Amino acid sequence: MISAKIRQKIAELWCEDMTRGGKAIHLLLEQQPVKPPSIRFVQDEVSKLNQRATELEPRTELKLWQHEWYEDPEKVPVLLALHYMRAEVEGHNFAGMYVEEARWALKISKFFDVSSPVHVYLLFKFAANYANLELLSILSDSTLDTHELDTALLEFSGVMFEGNSHTTGHRLLKDFLTDLKRVRPEYLEDSNAEEPGIRFSEEHPKSDGHTNNLETQIDQWKQLEWELARAERERFIAEGRFQASENTNWERSADKTYFENQENDIRSRAAGLYETPEGKVAYELFARSISVKIRLQFP
Q: What are the DSSP calls for 115-158, one per residue?
């Protein structure tokens, strides 16, 4: 009998990258502190998830000023702050934001100060995680369990429960801040970052400029790999919906051309980064850190 925990883990690994097959997910399960089921079982679970994905509406990217939310004066500051913060942190290649993530951000925005870049970054991290949990619950036909994120959110806002050490919430907050410190360490060096609930531990020493630059380059490779995975996932869903609608000429469709252009643009940017000495070194470190085959292949 396969436990619900194993099924949930399979769904989580697949949801991180919907183009993963059963073998790749089985390999990742072998690295987890659990006893993995057979490859056949994992493949069957992945097949079910793929089928459910084709039945869902594709996630929609939030377009600036093109949604009815911008008619609400209370929501505009939140959405603009999220949009421009991501552009600032991730550079011109930033991935944008899905409507589902924006909905969650608006739900929990009162916990955050959108005038602080640290708060805005944390708001997005929380919203993205809530949205992923929601999608996972739909695809795996399970109950939406937000306990871990709720606990972290309450800890961030300063709510303390008697007898509760908040180890789960602390871990999530630390992970979110570690991500921010890696890409924009200056945000955590000013006094505005020294606020209750988000003080960064002094046990993390400052890196020198070379290390920071290398880590930034590695993050760029991670971002490009994620963008390519997302484009492939959305193409997979679009092709499934296209075939289900009895349109058979996918090869000549405008949708196929659109996704090919997206993927070509990502690969072109990756090739440009690889041509730089720093980018090549960062790529080699990035490639060694990935446990499964990556999409951006270079000699």
A: TSHHHHHHHHHHHHHHHHHHHHHHHTT-----HHHHHHHHHHTT
Give pLDDT, residue 106.
Answer: 94
pLDDT in tens, 109-143: 988 888 888 888 889 989 988 998 888 888 777 78
Measured at the alpha carbon of residue 143, what is the angle toward residues 137 and 144, in degrees to the nearest 5?
65
- Tokens 């089928």 belong to residue: 51
The structure's pTM equals 0.56
Domain identity same for 224 and 183: no
CA 136 to CA 128: how far, in whole Å? 12
In this structure, are 188 and 228 located in the same domain? no
Would you say residue 78 lies in a domain? yes
Q: How far, in Å, CA of 35 to CA of 31, rounded?
A: 10
Same domain, 73 and 51: no
